[in-house]
Design a protein that fits this description.
This protein is α/β, with parallel strands linked by helices. About 45% of the residues lie in helices and about 20% in strands. The chain has helices at about 15-25, 45-55, 70-80, 100-105, 145-155, 165-175, 185-195, 225-240, 250-270, 275-280, 285-290, 300-310, 310-334; strands at about 5-10, 30-40, 60-65, 85, 95, 115-120, 125-130, 135-140, 165, 200-210. Strands 1, 2, 3, 4, 5, 6, 7, 8, 9 and 10 form a 10-stranded mixed β-sheet that branches. Helix 1 links the parallel strand 1 and strand 2 (about 30-40). The protein is globular. The N and C termini lie far apart (about 65 Å).
């Protein structure tokens, strides 16, 4: 059994694969297997994958029709045999010494998640390191505060590729990715892990270089703000209801109110039945109990006000007038 199973979904990443594969094959730690899931690529990615399979017997590929990154990761999990799982993206670069640094010290068999730093390669070429000040084992009672300290500033705790996850935990809890999500599927997955009181250990090593302007297939899809709202409600229930961290009440009211407004606003923009969404939210106490107009933004505030008062006609009027004003503004700028 390998120490680490590396799971990498691939969908039309031919421009990035050679560099990513080279970074993986040059790992200073050798005890790993790599499961590549070709999720219906049409750009030549398959040929590149086959080339590297011929070079290294530790690499294998599973082919499937395009079903999205969550389905691809689930497929990889079903085939993994390693003690640890490392999810990586095909357009990012793993640090060649991350695994070596992590496994150079024994941390016992009680740790479920090992978390490292990462780098952001910005559009202007600047590299910025993202890290947390805390190190070593994380006490379960202090973790919600650490999560809130960093997540909404950097996304640190929602990403997959700066973490090693013990496969036994995933099997025991039967955790899988929710298929169909086009954004924050990794955040939802990690929050489900955190809610299981997983034992976390923070290491001061860089795991990955994240390419900010990489071509991402999800960018071509409409963001499901209803799903994003549900994820934020789930996080609120974990932090406030389960962990009793009431000091974050106002922050979650602001977050959930903004997402509720986004559901309506982008539903209108995409010609969907936004009034149906509005009524569904108003009828949901998990949403209505959080609605507030503080700090939600000038454009979103009237939407939240309409939701609070069930003012559906005024909601239609506001969005229609706002849309016409925006059209007029664009004409004036042209």
């Amino acid at each position: 059994m390998p120490k680490v199973s590396i799971i990498m979904p691939v969908y039309n990443k031919a421009d990035y694969l050679p560099e990513t594969f080279s970074a993986l094959m040059s790992q200073s730690y050798q005890d790993w297997e790599m499961i590549v899931i070709n999720d219906g690529s049409t750009d030549g990615s398959a040929d590149i994958i086959e080339e590297y399979i011929r070079r290294d017997s530790r690499i294998c590929c599973i082919k499937q029709i395009n079903r999205g990154v969550s389905a691809a990761r689930n497929t990889g999990l079903s085939k993994a045999s390693g003690e640890w799982i490392w999810f990586i993206d095909a357009d990012d670069l793993p640090n060649r010494d991350f695994l070596k640094n992590v496994f150079s010290n024994e941390r016992g068999d009680t740790i479920d998640i090992i978390v490292g730093n990462y780098q952001r390669l910005e559009k202007d070429g600047e590299i910025q390191e993202v890290f947390v000040a805390e190190k070593g084992p994380v006490l379960s009672e202090s973790f919600p505060n650490i999560f809130m300290k960093y997540q909404y500033k950097t996304g640190y705790w929602g990403y997959l590729w700066n973490k090693l996850i013990r496969r036994e935990l995933l099997i025991k809890k039967q955790l899988r990715f929710q298929e169909g999500l086009t954004l924050a599927e990794d955040l939802k997955f990690m929050v489900e892990l955190y809610r299981e009181s997983a034992n976390i250990y923070i290491v001061p090593y860089v795991a990955m270089r994240y390419t900010v302007d990489a071509v991402n297939a999800s960018k071509d899809k409409t963001i499901d703000y209803w799903a994003q709202l549900s994820i934020q409600i789930e996080i609120k229930e974990w932090i406030i209801d389960c962990c009793q961290k009431s000091e974050y009440t106002k922050q979650f009211q602001w977050i959930i109110s903004r997402y509720a407004a986004f559901v309506v606003f982008y539903g209108y923009e995409d010609n969907e039945d936004y009034i149906k969404y509005a009524k569904m939210m108003v009828e949901n106490p998990k949403v209505t109990s959080q609605l507030c107009m503080d700090n939600v933004g000038f454009a979103m505030c009237p939407i939240v006000w309409c939701l609070i008062g069930k003012r559906y006609l005024l909601l239609k009027v506001y969005l229609s007038i706002r849309s016409e004003i925006r059209k007029l503004y664009r004409k004036m700028r042209a």
